[in-house]
Design a protein that fits this description.
The protein is an alpha/beta fold. The protein has two domains: 88 residues, 2-Layer Sandwich (Alpha-Beta Plaits), CATH 3.30.70.260; 140 residues, 3-Layer(aba) Sandwich (Rossmann fold). It is 39% helix and 26% strand. The protein contains twelve helices and twelve strands. The strands form three sheets. The chain has a six-stranded parallel β-sheet. Strands 2-3-1-4 form a four-stranded antiparallel β-sheet, covered by helices on one side. A two-stranded antiparallel ribbon has the order 8-9. Helix 11 links the parallel strand 11 and strand 12. The longest helix has 15 residues. InterPro entries: HAD-like_SerB, HAD-like_sf, HAD_sf, PSP. It catalyses: O-phospho-D-serine + H2O = D-serine + phosphate; O-phospho-L-serine + H2O = L-serine + phosphate.
């Protein structure tokens, strides 16, 4: 049972009076007192993406924060909005490092599935990927099984796919603002360095950590160099980067969509499941499911007027 201060952020394309009333009812249900509210984004004033966002500063005694999180997630799913609650550490802790998964988080694709499709084994690999992301298969085992099916793929296919990577909605705006505001950013991906490096060059990530494909004589061999970036490795990398840069874990944010992101999300000060599978949303402390990835900026507390379009 937690005592203290909390921040609840309601986000959606439109926060109607009825939606706001239901959020107020959720707050009252758990005995939380509203210290203040502020509108961080007003859809009627935005010239590009339509986002409404209201931030509630709350205080409560003997609050079961896990019960509040589950109720907030359920309410958001019912209303088609995001309702995110977190401990209020503003003024005490300033996040400095933000680590992202890549596939289905920064881009609208699972690259390994696209590689497999080009190699004629798409259905087989996609089925394995889906089970792995739901947490039904051990990541390393499933990863090696999928990789083996790519043996013989021509290296030129990688370049073709990199040029066509579909960026996630809001990622350009998110990265432009994070760079302007001075955050250190990293990609921690179970995907491949070839594509992470492309995103680094395109969007300006400070560092990347992903799996290195072994290529011989212009062909993918089906192997990757050790160590494989799996769930444990992602969490280790987040902690190692934070320590190297002189940040505490409370100063870190992690964003991902799959089961292999859960340890990273749990380790970070703020762990956000983005457009994630139900099992991941249920276990993560925070989740964004209805908006582009730039909605993260509002969960971090930035106002519309603080941000570039």
């Amino acid at each position: 049972m937690a005592r203290g201060n909390f921040i609840l952020t309601a986000l959606g394309s439109r926060l109607t009076v009825d939606i706001q009333a239901q959020v107020d009812a959720l707050v009252a249900q758990f005995g939380l007192e509203q210290k203040s509210t502020q509108r961080l984004a007003d859809a009627s004033l935005l010239q590009s993406d339509i986002i409404d966002c209201i931030e509630y500063r709350l205080v409560g005694d003997s609050v079961d924060i896990e019960a509040v999180r589950k109720a907030a997630l359920a309410l958001g799913e019912t209303l088609g909005v995001d309702v995110v609650i977190q401990d209020d550490l503003r003024g005490q802790v300033q996040p400095r490092l933000i680590c992202f998964d890549m596939d289905s988080t920064l881009i609208k694709a699972e690259v390994i599935d696209e590689l497999a499709r080009r190699h004629g084994v798409g259905d087989e690999v996609a089925a394995i990927t889906e089970r792995a992301m739901r947490g039904e298969l051990d990541f390393q085992q499933s990863f090696r099984e999928r990789m083996s099916k790519l043996a013989g793929l021509d290296e030129s296919v990688l370049a073709d796919i990199a040029k066509e990577l579909p960026l996630m909605d809001g990622v350009v705006r998110l990265m432009a603002n994070l760079k302007r505001l001075g955050y250190r950013t990293a990609i921690l991906s179970g995907g491949f360095t070839y594509f992470a490096r492309y995103l680094q060059e395109t969007l300006g990530f400070d560092e990347i950590h992903a799996n290195e494909l072994v290529i011989e004589k212009g062909k993918v061999t089906g192997d990757v160099r050790e160590p494989i970036v799996d769930a444990e490795r992602k969490a280790e990398l987040l902690a190692a980067i934070a320590e190297r840069e002189g940040f505490t874990l409370n100063q870190t944010i992690a964003v991902g969509d799959g089961a292999n992101d859960l340890k990273m999300l749990a380790s970070a000060g703020l762990g956000v499941a983005f457009h994630a599978k139900p099992v991941v949303r249920a276990q993560a402390r925070q989740a964004i499911s209805t908006l582009g990835i730039d909605a993260l900026l509002y969960v971090m507390g930035y106002r519309q007027q603080d941000l570039t379009p």
